[in-house]
Batch of 2 targets.
Target 1
Amino acid sequence: DHAQLRVLDVPIAYFPQLRMPDPTLKRASGFLIPELHQNSQLGFGAKIPYFLTLGDHRDLLLTPFLAEHTTTLELRYRQAFRNGQMTWEGAISDDGITSDQPRFYVFGEGKFALPKNYELFFNLKSTSDASYLLDYDYSDEDRLNSDVTVRRALRDENSRYALLHYESLRDGEDNATLPSIVGLAETERRFFPATLGGEARFSLKLHSHYRKDDSQIGGIIGGITVDSEARDMTLATASAWWRRNWTLPQGIRAGLSGELAFDGFHTQQDANYEGTEYQLTPTLAADLRYPMSKVAADGSTHVFEPLAQLSWSGGNTLNIANDES
């Protein structure tokens, strides 16, 4: 009661009542420190954040932003679970910058533990228009990458199953002709065969991407090959790989490896590459190495390893578009 703020023992502020948390209080609802902002588009304004506890495992941060040319409400919601957590943040604005109102954005991310050592991740992003994030200094991203992913990483396995979405905010990029929706399933496993020795790996990947445009399918136009801007593609790849190393006299290392890979591509909405292409590709390689190392006076280690390798690979060049990037 009757609190004063003093500088050099001179009272400069008076509060009939003032409530302040002491250091033992971990979480409590209440106002946070206000912020002043000056923006050439939005004008001068203030943010007054209010933190609201919703039990021991949830909270909500509400931040009204009032300026000369905008009325905005910013939000952040967080929640912890027994097996994970998630955070959502966003804002909604009514301003005088554009004629399309209201403007908004929402970002969400989370991580959850699933049975059998799998983990679920999500990272979702959306905005009302291309310039909203920059106008309010929320983010400088010019391509929004969203995904929902299930993943498992073990000593001898790495698996990922994902659905991804891409949205470009760049001038000159048309989201209808970008591969905005991508599905992916891939796994790689490692084995140590007792009969052959060495290490073996098996990998499998399924991938498909989709463009919304279905009109510009390319072809031969006026004697000139025109690429399709509507191409959709599905691919499947699988490979079996094996390698074994031996140590020879004088520290020479010898290695032998082999691989058999399958690649299949199915292309749609592209007059130049329509259809299915696939092949098997065998590979063999043998190498000799002579690793040498030296520890310097400062404790750093230098490794010098001459290598000679002889390899062969089969297969042919498939008639497919360069779409894998």
Target 2
Amino acid sequence: TALQILNSFFYLLIYPFLIRTLGVDSFGIYVFAMSISAYFTFLINFGFDMPATKVVAENFSNMVKLSEVLSIIYTAKTYLFFLASVVFLILINIIPIFQKYLITLIIGFVSIYSNVLFPQWFFQGIQNMKLVTAIQILTKICSLPLIFIFIRDSSDVNVYISIVSITTMIGAILAFLLVKFKYKIVIRFSGSQDIRPWFKEAQPFFYSTLAGSIKEYSIPIILGSFFGMREVAIYDLANKIVIVPRTLLSSVNAAIFPKLITNINNIVVKKIIIAELFVSLLIVILIAIFGNTVINIMGGREMHEAYYLSVLLSFTVISWLVVGAFINFVFIPNNKNQFIAKNQILAMSSFFIICFSGIFVKKDLLIIGISVAFSAMLEILYCLYVTKKNRLL
């Protein structure tokens, strides 16, 4: 939780400086590029993190097992990074808008190798997230003076994305070295016979994560293609207002997971779901009351459109918390991982249907918010339906 607070407030701290120095359009280009990179990040992760966390939590004192798991995940992610690189090279040569922002996209793409090196799932599994927090703090502190010194105007967007990419990679290297030398983990390249079962195990999580990421990271690309980079920046500001409480609170489920997975109690799970529902509703109300003031401070009055969008996007706080609880404490313990994938595919499909139908009728930024809010509520209804139907809780 502390890690999420630090990450969220760091970006809120520098946001007013960036939006006023880089300008709305250039900052929109940065968001656009990072959204492209996010697609490949999810391909590389391939849903390995959740099952790997579970195995580490159950075998945290078995060094042989930990070395085996880490070797398999590192090998699999490395192969996927090379596959992603090939796909990326093809795309930047055939899509005109990618060619327009070529350098920015390349810099952003290189940084995704940090997802191979940084095994946050390992630290989560051994319940030692303090080290991850320390690394994140260190890299953020190192990047701060560089940002204020070298970012001077809208032409420095590539400088900014380079600073973010380099400091992120340094943090990943530090984490990798800690795993090898502090925990004495031996990491080797694994054979295909060892990797294959993990791909099968991770498939439901991959489909679930892929559907969610396609929905979320398509939004800046849709906005950049149908509207403009200014609208990308407006959406990003609205999303930042929501991401702070959403990410902070959703980390609670991740923190509880290693403890609760070994001793599931349905009464406790019900209490967690109800508590998270009330907390998330409170967040929606607070954003509706104070969101406009925060947006004026962060981005100025020229980005006032972000307020109404942030209220609509705030409904994702409810889905992230409540659906996250169902995933962690109902579906996974009962080996019903297929419901995770189906839920996200349903949410993604509903989003795109409403989004594109709305855009063709009326080219309005709020169509995006309405589509996101509707798909978020649909996720919750689906989880309630399948849980009751299959008597999982």
